[in-house]
TrEMBL record:
Pfam families: Glyco_hydro_1. Belongs to the glycosyl hydrolase 1 family. It is an enzyme of class 3 (hydrolase). This is 6-phospho-beta-glucosidase.
Length: 489
């Protein structure tokens, strides 16, 4: 069926960033050390890693990412190693460029900007009694600048990060102390920014984070991880309840890595395996958006080698009272899975029917429409696409101008699929924030070469460059799409 791609009048168009990939200023304004600050740069061939030191002075460099995360010896402590480049320290320096960057976004027609607050700018160790004034001032300035252009802030309270102190002292989310620290931190945000901010996101890609410095637990799997996840569910639910009370009309979500997972074939064993593996994602959405543990939870726990997550009697009520108002997710690709594959929530092989990006991610616009329908059918709450985009190598000319027709094509196809889900399938979708509207550091590989933006930033993988911002060809294309509210797609 062909229908108009024009979207509802109140649709939110914008972009999304994370503090440690975008902001920089890591030793300014009293900011404390974050778990990400010890992560080096890398590439597709050479994974980024954390730099840690053993008691005898030996430096060890365990990989930091996802399922490849190695168990980290208890005695290892993080250190900065001379000569290593740590991208979070400078990122692309939004800290000093925020006025210019917000102006560029506003001129494209954005009416929403999703950004994460750096926890250690507000509480440098996570444990202070009083928040850091310079940190509050910085985000107050950012929010006021957004409001000047009528842009709605969508605030990620925690984007895969922890104050390093909380990782070292308490083992991260394994400890209830960290739940308390998070609740205190979130309350401070509501007190200071709640008068101007309606949309809040408690955790980024909560189903995907694992490993040292992200969950803050040192083992990447098993009971320790699911117990830490339980603490995050409680932290999110507590904050949702408090937020609703402190800011009437506020809307809360958490964010899921929902790149679509298909069965490799229609063989019943592959289909059933797909159902089970897919539940590794639903687990998170079901608990947080429906407010209770689903009946299949024990199957997942047993698969990971333990019988049950330990819970206090009051936990069920906390989860019920702190349900999310809407479901947000990132969508980059689709993967396939077959009988015998490991259960992993964002894993799988690339879909053989699809072309791939330079980083091997399958390009699947229809998968976005599929995913939107699937989530809404299941949860029956509005959705919000808070990350999508194409990471590609851009060739800038002598004026730093990039003709990124491949990015336009990617976005055209994905936004059309999104419009079809809204206009044909009637999925209520609040908005779309493209990942990295201004080039930023890649999370997965720590490089600048993998660029997502509408705006080129003159900086290389090691942080060299003028940091000058230059709109790409896609900038004006997107501006037109937003101006017509999707009709020009
Ligand atoms: C999501 C994260 O996983 O994907 C972002 O929330 C990340 O922080 C994005 O940047 C894209 O991944 P990458 O590895 O290309 O930066």
């Amino acid at each position: 069926i062909k229908t108009s791609k024009k979207l509802p009048e109140d649709f939110l168009w914008g972009g999304a960033t994370a503090d440690f990939q975008f902001e920089g200023g890591f030793d300014e304004g009293g900011r404390g050390i974050l778990s990400h600050d010890y992560e080096t740069d890398g590439s597709q061939e050479h994974p980024r890693h954390h730099t840690l030191q053993m008691p005898d002075g030996t430096i060890i460099t365990p990989q930091s990412n996802f399922k490849d995360a190695e168990d980290v010896p208890e005695e290892a402590v993080p250190v900065f190693v001379k000569g290593q480049y740590y991208p979070s320290h400078k990122a692309v320096d939004f800290y000093h460029h925020y006025k210019e960057d917000i102006k560029l976004m506003a001129e494209m027609g954005f009416n929403v900007y999703r950004f994460s607050i750096c926890w250690t700018r507000i509480y440098p160790t996570g444990e202070e009694d009083q928040p850091n004034k310079a940190g509050l001032d910085f985000y107050n300035n950012v929010i006021n600048e957004l409001k000047k252009y009528n842009m709605e802030p969508l605030i990620t309270i925690c984007h895969d990060e922890l104050p390093m102190n909380l990782v070292l002292k308490y083992g991260g989310w394994s400890s209830k102390k960290v739940v308390d620290a998070y609740v205190k931190y979130a309350k401070t945000l509501f007190e200071n920014f709640g008068d101007r901010c309606k949309y809040w996101l408690t955790f980024n890609e909560i189903n995907a984070i694992r490993g040292f410095g992200q969950l803050g637990v040192r083992k990447a799997d098993g009971k320790e991880r699911y117990q830490a996840d339980h603490n995050m569910f409680l932290a999110s639910a507590k904050v949702v309840k408090i937020g609703h009370k402190m800011m009437p009309g506020s809307k809360f979500t958490a964010m899921y890595a929902m790149s679509e997972l298909y069965p490799a074939t229609c063989k019943p064993e592959d289909m059933f395996h797909h159902l089970q593996e897919h539940r590794e994602n639903w687990y998170f959405i079901d608990i947080m958006a429906r407010g209770y543990y689903p009946s299949y939870a024990p199957v997942i726990w047993q698969h990971h080698g333990f019988d049950k997550v330990d819970m206090e009697p009051e936990d069920a009520e906390i989860l019920r009272e702190g349900q999310l108002d809407f479901v947000s997710f990132s969508y980059y690709r689709s993967n396939i899975t077959k009988d015998g594959d490991p259960w992993f929530n964002i894993g799988g092989e690339a879909n053989p029917y699809l072309k791939k990006t330079q980083w091997g991610w399958s390009v699947d616009p229809l998968g976005l429409r599929y995913c939107m329908n699937e989530i809404y059918d299941r949860i029956q709450k509005p959705i919000f696409i808070v990350e999508n985009g194409l990471g590609a190598v851009d060739q800038a000319d002598e004026n730093d101008y990039v003709e990124d027709d491949y990015r336009i094509e990617f976005l055209q196809e994905h936004l059309s699929a999104m419009a079809d889900a809204i206009n044909i399938d009637h999925v209520p979708c609040l908005g779309y924030t493209m990942w990295g509207p201004i080039d930023l550091v890649s999370l997965g590989t720590g490089e600048m070469k993998k660029r997502y933006g509408f705006v080129y930033v003159d900086m290389d993988d090691k942080g060299h460059g003028t940091l000058k911002r230059t709109p790409k060809k896609s900038y004006n294309w997107m501006k037109h799409i937003i101006k017509t509210n999707g009709a020009a797609l």
